[in-house]
Amino acid sequence: MLSLFSSVETYLCKALERSLPDLGLIPGNSCLSIDPQLVSASKPEFGDFQANCALSLAKKMKRSPRDIANAIVEQLEEDDDFLEICEIPKIAGPGFINLTIRNECLIKELKDRLGDDRLGVPHNVVNKGKDQASSVVVDFSSPNIAKEMHVGHLRSTIIGDCLSRVLEFLGHSVVRVNHVGDWGTQFGMLITHLNEVSPQALHKADSVDLGDLVAFYREAKKRFDDDEHFRTKSRHEVVKLQGGDLLALKAWQLLCDQSRREFQKIYDRLNISIHERGESFYNPYLKSVVDELTTKHLVVTDQGAKCVFLQEKSQDSRKAPPVIVQKKDGGFNYATTDLAALRYRFKQTPEGDGATRVIYVTDAGQANHFDGVFQVAQRANWIPEQGRVQHVPFGLVLGDDGKKLKTRSGETVRLCDLLDEAVDRAKIDLCRRLNEEGREEDQAFINKVSTTVGLASVKYADLSQNRITNYQFSFDRMLSLQGNTAPYLLYACVRISGIARKGGDLETTGDNLSFCERYEWDLVRQILKFDEIIIQVEEELLPNRLCNYLFELSQVFNRFYDQVPVLKAEQPFRNSRLVLCRLTAETLRLGLGLLGIPTLDRM
Ligand code: ARG
User: Fold this and answer.
1) Which one, 100, 462, 515, 521, has the greatest CB density within 10 A?
2) H/E/C letters for each residue in 565-583?
3) Residues 94-120: pLDDT tens digits?
């Protein structure tokens, strides 16, 4: 209903403008800047929209809010164009103006949705003109080489993919970047250790798997911490690698390939596309980052390390530690790489990505790191005037015990095991249900449904939480057919496909649309809210907004379908109701698609 919303807003501005003389104000430029404060109605009984400006104007003008609301409503009632869209406005409470869209107008909107594969969602690039096609970098997933990808990376992967999908759908050109940890001291120790215990891993592809590599990494780290001699050798190895030593580079390459293959298996299963551009990519730029910061007088040498001290935010009395851009031993670190990456991403092509917005999806624990990096980049003038840079933080994944998710033996949970278990459990649930219903299905069906449901459940459980909060991982909850879960939403789609199988023509056209039941209008309104939600997700980067909307849509649909006959109804109601079924299914399919979840016809 975005277009209706903006029309109503325009009429309200005009009415405000016209009512100002009555209110003792002179019309002029200043009045145009009065915001009618139009919002979606907080409750269905308040109509569709609600204008709140009378309250704040009342204070300024020392008049009662009701007076002001009355004056505005009087003007609205004289505007025939407005009355084509809205019913006569009602004033509620101290002076809220409640606005209800006319039924004919809702029906017209609904008709426009038929045959519109964007379901009313604007295409920003088309709207703003080609030149404004903005490029957005989404930095997500980003696991570390030679380490296991953990649930934190899974959250980043799922949330980052969803945000990328929404931005792409809105017409942005999105660069999905996998900023993998593929550089730094860990390789020195790993190569040194492998040279002694398993040299073939450094010379021959495929000779170790990631599990072994992770174990080797742990051993190497232990030796590094305990053994002075090993430390020296490792540091030497890093210098060789960074200096471009061919053997060291070859070994590094093999280790990266090994991890990459394992990561790719997870991406393939989850249908995630992402482009790898790891930390090593920025290696050639690190020195110039420090040089540029130095020239710009931002660097202070403190105990041998080159630092940028942060400007404190006035409210925050805690002193943030400085961003260290070069260590005492000359090495660069995580922050230096992120500064190089940020500079690169905003730089115009071909030297950079030419982005207008850069988004980082990581756990909330890295918030201070990004605060620091963004501030330094800002002061170095690496963020263009219209540029936006945002950290999208998320909370921890907790186990049943409310603590960070671990296996029973206390180790980090391997992602492939976690996905396997989701699919296995979905299969058990499905087989039990088939049994209860006395249905027979072949193995292909069972595999397809349980894979889709299992993976969808993991994704949806993550996306449906407000990402800032920690969330408790529970297979039972996420796989349940009841509640705000993937199976509940998928089941609503299945129900609608079932209507088609029973002879309902879901391709039906929108001639003679006619509704008579409250449940029908509730569904009409819910369907028409889709565009607004997508724009909200683009702005706030909160996928749970979309999940909540789709959950509500399924609930409103189920209520409608339980209360109102569809296939047995007389015309024109039968057709009109089939149109509602069709648009519900299309909205669910598109919405779930933007969450990275495919739908099913049967389950
Ligand atoms: N590799 C990092 C980690 O595992 C995440 C990287 C996030 N992206 C970035 N540009 N720093 O925590």
Assistant:
1) 462
2) CCCCCCCCHHHHHHHHHHH
3) 999 999 999 999 999 999 999 899 999
